[in-house]
Amino acid sequence: MATFNYQPIEPGRHPNPKINGEDPEVLLGERTASPFERWTQRLWWLAALPMLIFFILPILALFSFSSFGDLLNSLQDPEVHQAIGVSLRTTFFSLLVIIVFGTPLAYLLGRHRFPLHRAADALVSLPTVLPPSTAGVALLLALGRQSAIGGFLANMGLPLSFTGMAVVLAQVFIAAPYFITAAALGFAAVDNELIQAGQLDGANSWQVFRYLVFPIARVAMVSGAVLAWSRALGEFGATIIFAGNFPGRTQTMPMAIYLGFESNLTNAVTLSIILIIISFIALLSVKTLVARTTQP
Amino acid sequence: MNSPKKEYIISAFLIASILIVSACAAPTPMPMAIPTEIPQPAAIPTEACKPQTVNVFAAASLTEAFKEMAPLFQTAEPCAALTFNFGGSQKLSQQLQDGAPADVFASASGKNMDEVKTAGLVAEDGSQIFARNGLAVVVCPKTTFKIEEVKDLAQPGLKLLIAAKEVPVGGYTDQFLEKAAADAALGQSFMDAVKANEVSFEADVKSVLAKVDVCEADAGIVYKSDGFTDKTEGIRYFLIPEALNILAKYPIAVVKTSANPELAQKFVDFVLSARGQQVLEKNGFLKAR
Questions:
Q1: What is the ipTM of this complex?
Q2: Of B200, B202, B215, Cβ closest to residue A145
Q3: A-B interface: how many C-beta pairs under 8 angstroms?
Q4: What is the pLDDT of residues B57-101, one digit of tens each?
Q5: Do B142 and A258 touch (CB under 8 A)?
Q6: Strand order in the sheet with B198-202
Q7: What is the value of pTM for the model shown?
Q8: Could A257 and B199 be called an inter-chain contact, meaning their C-beta atoms sit closer than 8 Å?
């Protein structure tokens, strides 16, 4: 299944660019450094430090706000574990919806060129740059009780607004682009010759996806899914507008944090710490996963 | 199959998207604190007279009403230069006790006025009620329910929006429901039915109004002065009857340490005058009576 590489090897050059010292990373870091270069290295560190400290400080402040006992105590608060429950339930369904409905769109964007392809690509990324409150208002107008779809569903006895379904829709709207763009790039990275070889061997469209494209794009898909899930977990602006705030039904962790800030700061801090830990682990595992596969 | 370039592109993208995620995942910024110092254009004395400053410490909810009154008062008293300090009454009372220079104190609650009196900054009988505020029900114009009085809020299936208990008006709404539960005509069953109709506890009164405005809910409970903005055009509303309502009374007083007690008294008189009361009413407050 390996494709042949007909590039002639120049005499004296090794096929692996790293050995020739041509890899950009090798060029930057690993050459024997002169004293001047070592000095500039230190300068880089010095210049980078303020930004790094700026990221660390607020997080340290959160972690040092209350004692471990206080944290455990506020975990007992029904509003706190209700919020955690709602967040976990809704993000689970959001992720499911994102993967099931996002994969076909990502495949289309990644593997096909069609008129307005670039516009569709930009459209998919739009929710990531929109203010979430804009997304919330847009969802309310499109799917709220007064809209055609929302009104129809409400008449069928399936109201969307102020329900867990609305939380899921808000999260999907905001978080799906992270999965779709990552998966589309994963799909785009699959070599066309490989697909052609598969088709020559008689694989149908589904088999091409299942046995050729999917295994190669898997890492990109998993990374995208983890990113989308963490984003859904942190979603606030669109949710509070479209889904409202009802403890145990639509009140997610970010909402409990926002309201808790005004009444019970300890609970807000506890939830913040949980969110930070979960998000950090998620991001770290994505970065590790990507690093492992791109640098074998 | 090895195409390092594409892999670089993927990893570059993923890193970029991770950066975007971390940038966007933060909850939306907290709303700005209510500015305590709102710069007021200095009055231009039309006649030759020395402008005298009147520092007015007023509750944040009075911001619109008092700013509307300022030019009216200054027409009557060309030599007065009004300076406003709007903020939470609690905070203003604290500032007064810390010696902030003030001529008039307009509080949103009797409690904060009493604190200032205890501190000896206002005479025991020096304050007067100049406005009242209470809970009102806003109703979506397109609702299929008939909502004209408090008991209509208990109709099954009605969607009711209230403010979260963390917000002052949400706390008052709770008190109103307790009163209703104790009421002979409404009773516990009314409160239970209303609680079953609550679909969301909104983070602020403005979003209760906005969502009733687009008829996402059938009705909402707000503070009358909050509900009374141009945004409520087309929204029907009614005041909750006084027996059930939580009416906040706003007292106003001249501060003893005032450098301009006469002019300060003139401003208080103006607020209590028919003209001042009209402006307050226009901004959704109930008359002092």
A1: 0.74
A2: B215
A3: 125
A4: 998 888 888 999 999 998 888 888 899 998 878 788 888 988 899
A5: no
A6: B198-202, B160-163, B219-223, B135-139, B236-239
A7: 0.72
A8: no
